[in-house]
Amino acid sequence: MFIKFWGVRGSVPVPGKDTIFFGGNTTCMEIRPSDNKLLIIDAGTGIRLLGLELLKSDFGKGRGEAHILFSHTHWDHIQGFPFFMPAYVGHRNDSNRKPDKSCNKLHLYGVSDVDERLEVTLRGQMEHFYFPVDMENLGALIKFHPIQDKTIKIGSVFVTAKRLIHPNGVLGFRIQDGNKTLVVATDCEHPSDGTIDSNLLELAKEADVLVYDSQYSPEEYNPSAFGASGPTKIGWGHSTPLEGAKVAIEAGVKKLVLTHHDPLHNDDDVRRIEKIAQENFPNSIAAYEGLVIQV
Ligand SMILES: [Zn+2]
Ligand SMILES: [Zn+2]
Fold this sequence. Notes:
- By secondary structure, the chain is of the alpha/beta class.
- It has one domain: Ribonuclease Z/Hydroxyacylglutathione hydrolase-like (Metallo-beta-lactamase, Chain A, 4-Layer Sandwich).
- Helix content is 18%, strand content 25%.
- It has helices at 46-54, 117-124, 198-204, 218-221, 241-251, 267-280, and strands spanning 2-7, 28-32, 38-41, 65-69, 105-110, 141-146, 151-154, 157-164, 170-177, 180-185, 209-213, 255-259, 284-286, 292-294.
- A 7-stranded mixed β-sheet has the order 6-5-4-3-2-1-14. A 7-stranded mixed β-sheet has the order 7-8-9-10-11-12-13, covered by helices on one side.
- Helix 3 (198-204) packs across helix 5 (241-251) and helix 5 (241-251) runs parallel beside helix 6 (267-280).
- It is globular, with a radius of gyration of 19 Å.
- It binds zinc ion (2 copies).
- One zinc ion is lined by residues 72, 74, 166, 187, 237.
- One zinc ion (ZN) binds next to loops.
């Protein structure tokens, strides 16, 4: 399984001289299982760059097919979608929504139990107050699929989604390709009682790679626990590298990848976060734009 990170920031894009190494785009991952189908996790601003790369392949001719899994619909996970160029390639027939011969196909997966939230939100951010092209005018064929709390098959992979702890909810994903497993748990907070979220533990069990929300240092997350003052981040829906290491050890994970870097963190700050994880779980790395992992 080929895994590439196109956006690793949380909350808001932060391009600039202080974030050159890790990158400034928000969450997006490209996943190519052994059957070479294309899975994408989240449409933060990183998906714009992935889209440009895809145009060089079948997607440029309207013959591409992608499966985009949305962890949730917070802005930093959907904002790149209107700039995903493969969505504009094709001439689908609006009246019956059947594709013609040259029409990219995009399958969008997300939670469905809150008023079809994914579809409503993606359409909403393309309403004319916000964006000049509405979703009905995209050339690609777009299909929405519910995914939470079940396992689905996409080509050769099994994708299991479970709810994790985050304001208004988030899905964690376990992607199983033969005997290789990738788990993505972005935007998740650990329980306040010192335990590990049982849904996360179940998803992460013996995974080859666990991608984990490490937005805050332990001191930033809970200053008073370190004898410091300052605002707490408890209840904000994000976690720390220490908690990531704890999950990795408990679940028997092989490699821990830290993501959703805080917009206030420059490259040195992210390296400090990475070091905290490595001191507790040596096979840890902080994700950066362009990072490729092959399992
Ligand atoms: Zn986020
Ligand atoms: Zn979020």
